[in-house]
Write a structure and sequence with these properties.
This protein has an eight-stranded parallel barrel with strand order 1-2-4-5-6-7-8-12, surrounded by five helices. A six-stranded antiparallel beta sheet has the order 18-17-21-14-15-20, with helices on one face. It has two domains: 254 residues, Alpha-Beta Barrel (TIM Barrel); 87 residues, Translation factors (Elongation Factor Tu (Ef-tu), domain 3), CATH 2.40.30. The chain contains eleven helices and 21 strands. It is α/β, with parallel strands linked by helices. Helix 1 runs parallel beside helix 2, helix 1 packs parallel to helix 9 and helix 3 packs across helix 4. The chain starts with a strand and ends with a helix. The protein binds iron/sulfur cluster. The site of iron/sulfur cluster has 12 residues, from helix 7.
Length: 411
């Protein structure tokens, strides 16, 4: 049995550190101007150099996405940045464009190359084809089921296969879609998707433009294109049996809080599954954890063959549920005082239900112990305040504090 890595999105340096703290084996990042996520999820070369240094200290790998559909005007930049990525020492690049592949092979011939899911690889011959072009890992299309994946893995054991196990699904074949370009001028193929497939649509009759017809199949079905979010944590033994090398979590645009919760939950689950795949059962508390991040209704995607379920009319109540949010992050643990110094990232009121996420467990924090930097009790702390809380055990820097949201905060 292969021991697949847990691969976590790192939209910036803070998220990279969070992913490492909570158990990632590898992270993937964007590269300024060259990845399929807009500016807010890309690293400058200086940040990437720092990220690689930090990750390698902890034995964690870093893959850099340069997966734009390149135009001629992009090629010079691709070539220059590939050289820099090789110097920085990233552990691989993720790409989808054959032209970018050719450039990478020329500029950095020993650089491991991962083919992005954007290339929509769905069969053994395609895997062999890309392998012959120098690709060492294929991120398979999300549209395959586990049986099909297992067949490919057994046909080409020499090629690493990566699959998504958690996160948002795309209505189109991963980003091959014009909705966002059409409505907002921001292209999904250039990393700027505004997710218009999640919007509500109406039909209008030509001569009655002011009289839209809401599209419904029944009372609960009004979202035309909206997909649910992928969640495969219950099926890790089946995934291990399929023989893939890497389990990928989607979401470079997601928050630090999301990265912390999803990474540690899959870390716990994957370790349990690897210990005894046959006996693996997903613990109810792991499902509860994954319900505590912002998400849409969950689905098993195409993996279990029931393809109809993925886009099965996500009703309005199922869109973006969240009950908890980021309260702050730990800057420092002060052992003599039994306190942590936290930088708040949202408003927190003494009495709010607050929990500290440690890599191995969750601590309840008494938010009424919140004090300011001078030690005075604080009734309410605001974003960027530095505050103290009492704790009864050591806490690593970067640990995430979450708070339960009130109904008003959720709406
Ligand atoms: S709009 Fe939806 S279907 Fe289109 S690229 Fe974005 S996520 Fe995918």
């Amino acid at each position: 049995m292969k021991k697949p890595e847990l691969l976590v999105p790192a939209g910036n340096l803070e998220k990279l550190r969070t992913a490492i703290l909570y158990g990632a084996d590898a992270v993937y990042t964007g590269v300024e101007g060259l990845s399929l996520r807009a500016q807010q999820a890309e690293f400058t070369m200086a940040e990437l150099e720092e990220g690689v240094r930090v990750a390698h200290q902890q034995g964690v790998k870093v893959y850099a996405a340069i997966n734009i559909s390149a135009w001629n005007s992009d090629l010079e930049q691709v070539s220059a940045k590939t050289g820099e990525l090789a110097e920085i020492g990233v552990d691989g690049v993720i790409l989808s464009d054959p032209g970018v592949l050719a450039l990478v092979r020329r500029v950095a011939p020993t650089m491991p190359v991962h083919l992005s899911t954007q290339a929509n690889t769905t069969n053994t011959e395609a895997v062999r084809f890309w392998h012959a072009q120098g690709v060492s890992r294929i991120v398979l299309a999300r549209e395959l089921n586990l049986e099909e994946i297992a067949a490919i893995a057994s046909d080409v054991p020499e090629v690493e296969l990566e699959i998504f196990v958690h996160g948002a699904m795309c209505m189109a074949y991963s980003g091959r879609c014009l909705l966002s370009s059409h409505f907002t001028g921001r292209s999904a193929n250039r990393g700027e998707c505004t997710h218009p497939c999640r919007w509500e649509y109406m039909l209008t009759e030509r001569s009655r433009p002011d009289d839209p017809l809401i599209v419904t199949e029944d009372e609960r079905y009004s979202y035309l294109l909206s997909s649910k979010d992928l969640r495969m944590i219950e099926y890790l033994s089946e995934i291990l049996a399929a023989g893939v090398s890497s389990l990928k979590i989607e979401g470079r645009m997601k928050t630090v809080y999301y990265v912390a919760v999803v990474t540690r939950t899959y870390r716990w689950a994957l370790d349990a599954a690897l210990k005894d795949p046959e006996a693996y059962r997903c613990a109810p508390e792991w499902l509860a954890e994954l319900d505590k991040v912002s998400h849409r209704g969950y689905t098993t995607g195409f993996y279990l063959k029931d393809k109809a379920e993925v886009f099965a009319g996500l009703n309005p109540e199922e869109s973006y549920r969240r009950a908890y949010g980021l309260a702050g992050t730990v800057l420092q643990y002060l052992p003599e005082e039994g306190k942590i110094l936290v930088e708040l990232r949202n408003q927190l009121t003494a009495g709010d239900e607050t929990e500290l996420l440690l890599p191995e467990t969750t601590l309840t924090i008494d938010s009424t112990t919140m004090t300011d930097e001078d030690g005075k009790p604080l009734a309410t702390g605001h974003n960027s305040y530095r505050v103290y809380f009492q704790v009864d055990r050591p806490v690593p820097a970067g640990a995430v504090l979450r708070r339960r949201l009130t109904r008003a905060q959720i709406l």
